[in-house]
Amino acid sequence: MNDAATKKLTIAQLVREIEDRKGYRINLATAHRWVIKGCRGAKLAAERVGVRYLTTWQDYERFATAVAAGPAVVEPTTPTRKRNRVADAGRILEAAGIRRPEPEPV
To answer: Are the beta carbons of 34 and 43 closer than 8 angstroms?
Structure first.
């Protein structure tokens, strides 16, 4: 296996490596978001060491392939679906005794 592909990189180092290898620059916050929240259903694999995240170039390539193959269009949440989810959450909280029922509108 290629030693450069498995070398541990901080997120800042990964950002610089992407710029060197791919020719375009991404923001550091974008790369952190890939680790924390992911993109199109895929997360960048990284391990936390102290306050830093470490990843590898191989992990980035797997992530980029998964994002490219992932869903191109995310179905938007309609107002009705959102209202139903909020109502469901309210019922769950009420059943758990965390939230009191809201008074009915007059």
So the answer is: yes
Span 47-102, pLDDT tens digits: 999 999 999 999 999 999 999 987 666 677 889 989 999 899 988 988 888 877 66
Distance CA 31, CA 36 (A): 9
Compute the C-alpha angle 24/45/41, nearest 5°: 80
Residue ranges of the domains in the chain?
3-69
Beta strand 9-10 with 52-55 is antiparallel
Full-model pTM: 0.62
Measured distance CA(39)–CA(99) in Å, rounded: 33
